[in-house]
Amino acid sequence: MTQVSLKDLIVGARAGLLVSFPTDTVPALAAIPEKAALIFAAKQRSQDKPLILMAASAEDLWLYVKGSENEYKIWQEVANKYWPGGLTLVLPASQHLPKVMNPIDPTTIGIRVPNSAIARTILAQTGPLATTSANFSGQPALQKIAEIEVQFPQVLTLATTEYQEEPGMGIPSTVAKWTGINWQILRQGAIKLDISSDNQI
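Predicted structure:
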């Protein structure tokens, strides 16, 4: 059994172990950014599928991206409108981002703040984590702790006694990439992004 208390899960994550916790979309498989390779290995995930950097607040994420003053303004407006929530923004990465997060193209990174109190409680104490859905690559996202434990026996999961196990909506986040002038939808998911003229340069 790898179900642990909230405190032990946070300690484990900080120590570089793989952890899993609920989010507003699907449960996350997570590790500190420097240990992102553990996620690729556990999921048998192709290196050309980058991970998402998830944090408790937008302020925790801006350090990992870089852009012009005008771009930051646009990104922050979108973040203020949709976060916390099921929207991942793919933005130009700063030098603070460990290359293992996106080995093939370390120039970009997907960032997100989940609309889940338990996820944000964990992230507030671990700092931003490299995340993805908890499943083997190419298979459906697992929804329950029991399923995650079977597939990933080495991963620390949150004991159900610590919180009410409520399934996320089961739909992955919408992924929108900044092209330098506007947004390109890479994956339509939980949120319908309003790509209006005020979100363009």
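Summary: The mean pLDDT is 91.
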